[in-house]
Amino acid sequence: xxxxxxxxSNRHPHxxxxxxxxxxxxRGESPSRAAQAQTKASPKLDLGEASHRRKNPLxxxxxxxxxxxxxxxxxxxxxxxxxAPSLLHDPNCYLCPRNVRANGARNPDxxxxxxxxxxxxALHPDATPERIEDGLLVAEGESGLCRVLCFSPRHDLAxxxxxxxxxxxxxxxxxxxTITLGSREGVASVQIFENRGEIMGCSNxxxxxxxxxxxxxxxxxxxxxxxxxxxxxxxxxxxxLDYLEQEIARGERIxxxxxxxxxxxxxxxxxxxxxxxxxxxxxxGFDELFPDEKPxxxxxxxxxxxxxxxxxxxxxxxxxxxxQKPAGGAVHAEWQMHAHFYPPLLRSAxxxxxMVGFEMLGSPQRDLTPEAAAARLREA
Length: 380
Ligand SMILES: [Zn+2]
Ligand SMILES: [Zn+2]
Fold this sequence. Notes:
Elements lengths: L30 H11 L10 E4 L6 E4 L48 E4 L13 E4 L2 E4 L3 E7 L13 H19 L6 E8 L11 E7 L4 H17 L3 H12 L3 E4 L3 E4 L10 E5 L13 H19 L6 E6 L14 E5 L2 E4 L2 E2 L5 H4 L3 E2 L3 H10 L1
Parallel strand pairs: 2-16
Antiparallel strand pairs: 1-2, 3-6, 4-5, 6-8, 7-8, 7-12, 9-10, 10-11, 11-13, 12-13, 14-15
Helix pairs in contact: 2-5
Bound molecules: zinc ion (2 copies).
One zinc ion binds next to loops.
């Protein structure tokens, strides 16, 4: 792990295709050896300097990377930095213990985590499954359940400031919700996520996340299931385990790791400081975690959010969430659970990345390379 922006030019894996000089994906040899061979064979495309695009094997989509644009001066929008909450208990917060919510229910005096059905959920369990198809106009009823999970009774904390033992209680709640919601009739997916920060549209600073159970696989889960299934069928291997092996061999995008999890910036990252948390062994979902993996996951979450906060010296905003195998009890040997962190900040606490123009109409685009961003997060 000695990479820096300066030396990132000469050691890059299989670059964007098509490149005539690149050998095939190294079938039959270990990813690290294949990667070394490719590095030698691809002197032309400098991934630290030249504009190029990178493929996301989980979705099949491409990200445009323009490292040379890092030299341009910033004249875009600057955001205000939101003040961190100072109250341990906010009488006006609908998530704090003992407070009354908008629907009249009173929160219990919970000591750790607290889960409840969202009073204004986007989905209802009783929605009709009826499908309407009129030529190209297709719609169908979508049932589901939206739950809210308070990470802590303390209004002023975030994952980054919580004790690791308390973050582990959050992990325990995710396990429990995955099992309970996932075993309900008519639930295909349990999506766990957190929106953090005003800049992400999060209206309440009380540390909390959400869990949505849906009758159908949401778009991202559908894409990732298809890609992982195809990879397993073609190679008899798990896509994200092969990917992790390649990343560990190279090291340049690894942020940190512990005994059970690796945190890295994906090769195809869209957001400037986007990361993934990947398990070292094959784990399809929260219900498959071993007891010693829960504190390790809590520790990875704690360290990652601390690093984010230190990066720009601000309570770092993000959308994060876990992708896991579809619900319903099937094994899903293709699936490797993982977390995505999508933070919107670009180059300081006040400069946000906007997904506009070419990004809305073409592909996402970034200037800072994932290798350079990973180095900064490693040093934070
Ligand atoms: Zn609160
Ligand atoms: Zn994913």
